[in-house]
């Protein structure tokens, strides 16, 4: 029984992903920034968006599709990368805008091999199979609707070439 309990705990830890729950009301959800700021799994992303001066843009009318890396995704970058980016605002902005696609792209709109042009001008490649990927990053939660677009949570930071 002890082994079963440990296995269940280990399994639960490996599949835990940030979740967003909305009250069952007819109110519009918050904007992209409000939703990200309301979830502790995105504290690094919110700090980066703030440092890059992109808060007003992502609170704007949109619509936007944001591929949002979690804090764990940022932590997986080589040591010192996040700190270096926070000191290099043009590079940080290029990376953050590489995570944003103009318009609302829901998971049902995706096709394997499709290309999506990002706000920074480069394109990301979408993979659709057992999992959905964006330039190799796995979508771990899709279709989080915001008042000005949609968020898809990803497990790694996208780096433009």
Strand content: 15-25%
Q: What separation lies between the terminal Cα atoms?
A: 50 Å
Side by side, the strands of the main sheet go 2-1-7-6-5-4-3
The total count of helices amounts to 7
The major pleated sheet works out as: 7 strands, mixed
Give the structural class: alpha+beta
Written as H for each helix and E for each strand, in order along the chain, the element string is HHHHEHHHEEEEEE
Q: Averaged pLDDT, please? A: 85
Question: Share of helix among residues?
Answer: 25-40%
Would you kindly provide a written description of the structure presented here, covering whatever features stand out?
This protein is of the alpha+beta class. 34% of the residues lie in helices and 23% in strands. The protein has a seven-stranded mixed β-sheet with strand order 2-1-7-6-5-4-3. A hairpin with a 5-residue loop joins strand 3 and strand 4 (123-128). The chain is globular, with a radius of gyration of 16 Å.
């Amino acid at each position: 029984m002890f082994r079963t309990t440990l296995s269940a705990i280990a399994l639960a830890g490996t599949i835990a992903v940030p979740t967003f729950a909305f009250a069952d009301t007819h109110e519009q959800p918050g904007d992209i920034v409000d939703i990200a700021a309301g979830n502790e799994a995105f504290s690094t992303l919110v700090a980066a968006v703030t440092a890059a001066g992109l808060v007003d843009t992502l609170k704007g009318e949109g619509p936007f599709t944001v591929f949002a890396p979690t804090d764990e995704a940022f932590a997986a970058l080589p040591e010192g990368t996040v700190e270096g980016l926070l000191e290099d605002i043009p590079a940080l902005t290029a990376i953050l805008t590489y995570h944003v696609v103009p318009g609302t792209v829901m998971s049902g709109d995706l096709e394997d091999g499709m290309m999506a042009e990002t706000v920074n001008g480069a394109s990301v490649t979408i993979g659709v199979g057992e999992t959905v990927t964006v330039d190799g990053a796995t979508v771990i939660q899709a279709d989080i609707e915001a008042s000005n677009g949609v968020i898809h949570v990803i497990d790694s930071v996208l780096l433009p070439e």
